[in-house]
Amino acid sequence: QDCGQVDNDPDDGDGHGTHVAGTIAAITNNNLMAAGVAGGFASGSVSSWGNGVEVMAMRIGYHAKYQGQITGIVRMDWAAEAMSYVADQIDRHNINVAAINCSWDSSNTGGIDAAVDNLLAHDVMIIHSAGNNNSATADYLGAKAGVMNVAATDVNGAGAGFSNHGAWVDLAGPGVDVLSTYAEPGDPDKDNHYIALLSGTSMAAPHVAGVAALLESFDPNLSGPEKLDIMVNTTTPYNDSRNLGAGIINAYNALQAIGPPESPTNVNAEPHTQCDEVLLSWIASARAAGYRIYYQENTPGPPFDPCQPGNPASGADVGDVTEVIISDLIPQTTYYFAVTAYDALGESDYSNQDSAVCASNCKVIISGYIQTISGFGIEAVKVNANKGGGSALTDPNGYYQLEVPWGWTDGTVTVGRDRWMFDPNHLEYPGMVTENQTAQNYIGRASADFDADGDVDIVDLAFFHRYWLQSDCISKNNCDQTDLDLSNKVDMIDFGLFAEQYLKK
Q1: Are 1 and 78 in contact (CB under 8 A)?
Q2: Is the CB of residue 338 less than 8 Å from the CB of residue 292?
Q3: Which CATH class is domain 450-503?
Q4: Distance (Å) of CA 334 to CA 7, 359, 454
Q5: CATH tag for 265-358 (out of 3.30.1330.60, 3.30.70.270, 3.30.1360.110, 2.60.40.10)
Q6: pLDDT tens, residue by residue, 423-469
Q7: Which of 49, 103, 114, 223 could bridge to 129 as Cys pair (CB 3.0-4.6 Å)?
C-alpha cells in the first residue's frame, strides 16, 4: 500500500525500508545474502513463498535532499493512513497482524494518535525505534503508552553510542553494522539484489518485530501485551550504564518461554477391525507440528516401555494426524495409551490415558469339509463348538465355517446329523486357539437302518436290493436313502457301506 499517493507502488526510495523488511522477513537458508529473524525456510522461488512471516509493505514518506544529502522524510498523516489501512485489513479479511515496525521519528500530528489507539485496540504491537541522538528524551511514539521502544547495541552487547535511552525504553536490539537486504535508490532495475551494513535504532527495532512474529506464529493466542512481557523478561544483559531497557532481545529465550504445545485431549482407544489392531484418536493441540504415541501392555504409564512391540512402535512420531491404527498387538491384551504434541519448542506432557483390550470381540475361524467316503459333500450337518463357541451348518458341498472367540481354550467341536455317523465325531483343540484353523475335515457314513428299527437286518437288505444298481437317485429321494455315499447311484461302493453295517449286527 502506497499511502498518501495514488500509484499504489510501495517501492523503497532510499533503501532504509528494504533493510528493515529484510531483518524481519528475508527468507533463510536459500543462499541469498541475508536471513530474517522470522524469514522461515524455503528455496526462495516465487512459487514457494516458504513458511516465514509475510510483510505488508507501506510507504509513508518520500526521499529528498536535506543539507546536501538524500534523506527519507516520513509524514505523520501518511503514517496514520497506513495504520488505518492495517486495521481495515484486519476487519475486512480477519488477517493476523503480529506487529508494525516504526523505524522512524514521530510527532503527534496528522491524526496519528487516533490511528495508534485503533491499532492497539486491534491487539497489534507497535514496535518503535528509540532514536539515534544519544538522548533521554522520547519522541511522540516513545512516550505513548502501549508502544514498545527499542534501543540499539553492538555485536559485543554494548550500547550503541548514538542510541537514545531512558526509562521509557523497553529493551534493546542489534543496531550496529547490521547486514540486511537493500534497495539502491539510483538503480532503476528493481530486480537487482543488494545487501548493506547499516546502523541505527531503525535496525534494532525490526529484530524485535521479527521475534514478535515468531511468538505469534508459535502461539497466535498471545496478546500484544503478553508478547511484550515475554520479550522483556527473556533478554540478555547489555554492557552500558545508560538505561537501554530490560536487556537485549533474545529470540531463543523468548520462544522457550512459550514452551511446548498443549497436550492433546480426549485420547480414545478402541479395538479395530483386525485382531491385532487398536484405533487411537485424539483432539488436536492448536500449536502442534506433530504427535507421538505411547503405549504398553497391562500397566498404565508413565513411564512407557520404549521396547513395546507394535506398529507404529511406542514413542513413534506419527506426524500431523489425529488418529492412527496400531497393529501387531497381542489380542485379548489390555493396552494403555497416551499421546504427546510437539513443535520446535519441545514436546508436551502426556495426554489423558485410555485403555483398550485388543481384539475384545475378535473371532477365529474353524473351517473344513464334511464328506462321504467318495468325496461328496454332506449338507445340513450341524457343527458345534463348546465353551462359548458358535455353531454352523454345512452347505451343499459339505463346507462349514465356524466362529469361536480368539483365545478359545481347550475346546471341542462336535458334528452330527440324524441317521449319519462321522469319523471322527469330534475334534479337540488343546490350548488357546489364536489363529484360523482350516482343513478340519470329517468323513460321514449314512445309516443303513432304512426302516429305523435300530438294527441293520434282512428287512434293510431287501430294501437296499430294491434300488440296487439304480443310476438316477435324485428324482427318487436318494433312492430312499440307499445311496449311502451321495453319488446319485446305488453301486458297489454303497453295497460295501451297507455290508459293513449289516455284518456288525
Answers
A1: no
A2: no
A3: mainly alpha
A4: 70, 10, 54
A5: 2.60.40.10
A6: 999 999 999 898 899 999 999 999 999 999 999 999 999 988 888 87
A7: 103
